[in-house]
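Record 1 of the preview.
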Amino acid sequence: MAIRIDFSGVGASELTEEMARFLSRANCLDGICALTIAEHDDPPQRSIAESVCASSRARATSSLSSDAAGLLRIAWQTELASRFAVALDEPSLKRISAPTLPVNAYYAVFNCRRAFGRVAGTNLDRHNAVADDFAGRTRRLPLPWSLTLAGDPEDLETCDLKPPIVKPYSITPIERSHEPSAYAWAALRMARRWKVELARESWFNDRKHRKPDGSKRQRLPKGIKKKLALGLRPTTLYDFLWELRRRANYESSDEYGSDVGIADFARFHDGLVALLDAAMLIGETEIARRVGYEALAAAGSDWMGSARRAGAWATEPLSTRLEAIRAVV
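->
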């Protein structure tokens, strides 16, 4: 199926649904990356680490267990798998790696959050547990990771974006004419729509909502969809990252083979890698504040020792983040 979209007066272009889905995600990721740079220095690592540290006066109160260090190694290894296209400097590899990038990026962050759970004394081994824990910490995080969206994504009057960096409005994210803050809003709205879809499926699968004859209903009763949307906890960028991975694993991934340009795949890839880097930095900084910088650096040095054989590109992201953390913790 083809749809027509007008790119802000530039002209009408024929787009398939798969192309539209991919371009929407690429534009959202590119916009979030631009918002991060606008809010922080470029590169933003030290500014982000400073913001995480400034949110609390907590000092090192625990140790980095072998279990937590093992989870960090898994996170760093999975992050490494996300960066091959950057290392080889081959644009076509960003197209080839697009279907697996959301999976690798998510699991790198997920295992970093699991490691944080170990040092914080919280069990964060389940996806929902990590997502809920992260949602409870957003107010102490720097933009754009502090953003949350509550309400019904189909009813702008109920949408509550915090911090209010933009007033929620009807946005077509395949257009390239919006401000970076608008694409962050669009990403959260996209993720919340996906969450509402899941809540809708769960409602249908719940036996107590079946017909008297035991069969599943085909339609939601009036008002239930809005009730489901309003009952969801606020959506975060972690949810957006999670849903990109979940849909790549379990839903259609045809959009990653769509006929968009190499430059669009590059924006998707670079935006998601930047999102990954910031999320890893936040988790690592939170861990360093609980176990001390030296313990985190020792674990990082141990992992980098084994990864250096792949080349400097393999260790540079972690090394850069550790330097930023060392300066502020």
